[in-house]
Amino acid sequence: MGYHLVRALEFLCPVCRMADSSKEKIIKGIEEEFEGRYPIRPIAERDDKIEEDLAKGIQKNLELLHRYSRPDHLSYYEEILTTSIRVNELKLAKEEERKIIGIFCNFVPQELLYACDSIPVRLCAGTYETIHPAEEILPRDICPLIKSSLGAKLLGLGYFELCDLVIIPTTCDGKKKLGEILNNLVPVWMLELPQKKDIGSAEGLWFDEIKTLRERLQQFTGNKITGKRLRDSIELLHKRQEVFYRLHRLRRHNPPPINGRDFLLITQTGFYDDIDRWIEKTEGLCDELKHHLQPATHSSPRLLLTGAPIIWPNYKVLNIVEEAGATIVADELCSGTQFLYEPVEPDEWTDEAMLRAIANRYLLPSTCPCFIESSDRIDRLLSLIEEFNIDGVLYHLLRLCQLYDIELYRIRQVLKDRNIPMITIHTDYSQEDIEQIKTRIEAFLEMLSNR
Amino acid sequence: MEKAKVKRPITLLRHISQITFFIFIVFGALFGLKKQHLSLLPFIEAPKEYGEYKSQLRQEGRNIAIVGPGYPQAFDTFLPIKSCRFLRQTGTFRACFMHFLSECIGWATPLRLVLPHVLLFVILAVPFGRLWCGWVCPLGFIQDTLNTMRKTLGLNPHSLSDRIKKSFRGISYGLFVSIILLSVISAVAAFPWTLRKQVYLSICQMCPSRFIFPYLGGWPIVHSFIPFGYGVFTTLSTIFTIFLGMSFFIKRTWCRICPSGLLLSVFNRGGLLNKEKDILKCTRCGICLAVCPLQNENVYLEKSHIKKNRMMELKRDRNIDHKACIHCFRCIDFCPEEGCLKVKFLHIKIFSSRPH
Ligand code: SF4
Ligand code: SF4
Ligand code: SF4
Asked: Quick check: A15 and B151 CB within 8 A?
């Protein structure tokens, strides 16, 4: 009764209505993105050799990591990433009619996915072995991440195979076109991302897109996203962000209690793992690390990692750098810090405010180069450099990822002005150029220590 | 291990302050704060010489006791906020500063009586600017309470589009100027007395407080629509009260046009209390803008392409004060970046944003 009275008042109030007329856009019809009239028939055989190679690569990474004395808690993350525990769990969840939803990039609001009782899994892949099968369909001259991800689906590997749905934001060209191809294998929704990242688009196009996504998710999963559920999931993810932030800050210490590879390992376990367990374990890890902080030394150079995503098990460059004696103490990777760094802080717990906060969080603070401007990314780098006492910057570039490549010049200039050394590594997922990279990195570290 | 921490300490403090001041300002008399008990307090007395206005009333043969020193409020002080004069039975302060201005102009009160009050106003306003609005003003508190009620009901908030926001600001200037003009008219003998009488103390006649505080203070007043002038003002006051009621949906709607607030806002940029943003640390997440009750773009846009020309400056800490800012510090309370937004008093950092 009271509610309806107030609704009526709201309706009668001219200013309220004028104020809202601009943003009250009709939610677009819920329809499939792709017509699919000319389907692709993918051919890929499951190949045991590929899986063997994959396992070998992973084993090699672990061996390198195990050379160091590491916190006990890390074994949990390794287990999730290397064994099929989580895959089996997800299979069970699927039997309980929960939907598994695969996502790409950092723009799909996980709050909404958790609120409709589905389980998000981030699918961006870092496996070299799956690239080859994908090249049957995709051109060779395309970024390895796209090829690797498609290949994983073609081969029916792990998490990909479990997904009932994949949501892809229209970030770079590769992601944009990946959807249509993937749609032949699994239902795909595209999330239209504005190219201009400002408050206007966040309140207009993007906000509508998020609203539409909510409607679609409700229909798809059959679970209504009520205010309470949304609030619960926001609070859950906020907790994850808080724990993550704690871990992130611990790396300010000199020497950092954890190296860059382990840190990425932890973050990327968060791509797949059960969120409650991840929070609990990471909390434990933070406590452990806090107790083992060592007194300050000045031995190893502190590096900041930026550029194209590095995803498990493609830790090639990291292995080389950290084996050579440097430590990565901070990163600006979308597959690393940026994945969990920003919180959702709604002004109040009403529907609109929560959705707005979610929309803002996924769009506005993003440092992804797919937007027209790179100032935010540069600001972020500079503030990380200051906060983490960085000695040098490692700019990782995936071959054929143009966006990061184009921003390189500007960033190099900015860093040069501030007298911060930077090394650029142009590479892909293959192992062929290891020696070459090693020589360059060793020279770079040498230069750092002579400064 | 970690002790339970308050999530939004500043906002909590602010609410406590608002409630305390509301009770103090509106119901002070209930705690024995009557003028007769406190007559010895060395407060600046309100002017008691009414100049020409008084003799006009005398000529009409009217009783002037009502405008005489018969105010029962404890302090003859005019706060820079809406502490209404119609709180006769229970209030603590004489009236708001706008009332004082309008009254003094209308009476052509000698400057020597006006100056102490202006001085007091400046002393109160320069250090804090519109902090008075966010932390003290009872009318502001009423609007916040209305908004809290909406929140509790789970209704969606509304926000004003830029266009409407601008026109509200326009109204506020217009209102202020017309109040001063009307006060001048009421003071100038060349105008006919009927007109002067009707526009006398126009601020009070159109203030939304007129529909609230008299009833809270137990001294209801008559809303008169006759003659014409009174009718216009009463209509305006009704409209403004509706604006005030609209802060149920749109935060602090009345504050966007309040003349007292406008007067205080002069001291927002030039005052001693400032807010600064470290633009390198800001991730442009937009939280500060989303939580600001007055939708101040400044706090967000200071790092945005809209102000691109300013980006060329090399200064890292940018002043983000804005005319409309009521210093509620919600932006600082919510900003997740450590040390990104700072509050400074006399350029000394008081507190800054921190992660939660
Ligand atoms: S602007 Fe609002 S808070 Fe400030 S004096 Fe006016 S009514 Fe009070
Ligand atoms: S809340 Fe803080 S980090 Fe976010 S945009 Fe505002 S000032 Fe920047
Ligand atoms: S800018 Fe900040 S302090 Fe000022 S009104 Fe907005 S939220 Fe409050």
From this structure: no
Contact B333, B9 (CB under 8 A): yes
Indicate whether A171 belongs to any domain: yes
Phi and psi for A339 in degrees, rounded to 5? -65, -40
Residue bearing tokens 């791509």:
A271
Residues A177, A179, A184, A187: what is their CA dihedral angle, to the nearest 10 degrees?
-170
DSSP codes, B254-274: GGGT-HHHHHHHHHHHHSSEE
How many degrees, rounded to 5, is the angle at CA A231 between CA A226 and CA A233? Answer: 100
Same domain, B82 and B169: yes
- pLDDT tens for residues A389-439? 999 999 999 988 889 999 999 999 999 999 999 999 999 999 889 999 999
Contact A15 B306 (CB under 8 A): no
Q: Which domain holds residue A443?
A: 68-449
Under 8 Å between Cβ of A57 and A313? yes
Mean pLDDT over all residues of chain A?
A: 88
The owner of tokens 């309980």 is: A96
User: End of a domain among B245, B267, B289?
Assistant: B267
Q: For a ligand 1 pocket test, name from B17, B25, B78, B81 the mutation site with the most ligand atoms within 8 angstroms of its C-beta.
A: B81
Select from A73, A57, A9 the least CA-distant residue to A280.
A73
ipTM: 0.86
Q: Could you report the per-residue pLDDT of B40-94, keeping only the tens digit for each?
A: 445 566 665 555 555 566 566 554 444 444 566 777 788 888 888 888 778 888 8
Closest CB to B161: pick one of A22, A351, A361: A22
Total structural domains in chain B?
2
Question: pTM of this prediction?
Answer: 0.88
By residue range, what is the domain housing residue B281? 272-352
Q: B339 and chain A: CB distance < 8 Å anywhere?
A: no
Q: Chain B contacts of A227, Cβ < 8 Å?
A: 154
Domain boundary among B267, B288, B314: B267
CB contact under 8 A, A376 and B250: no
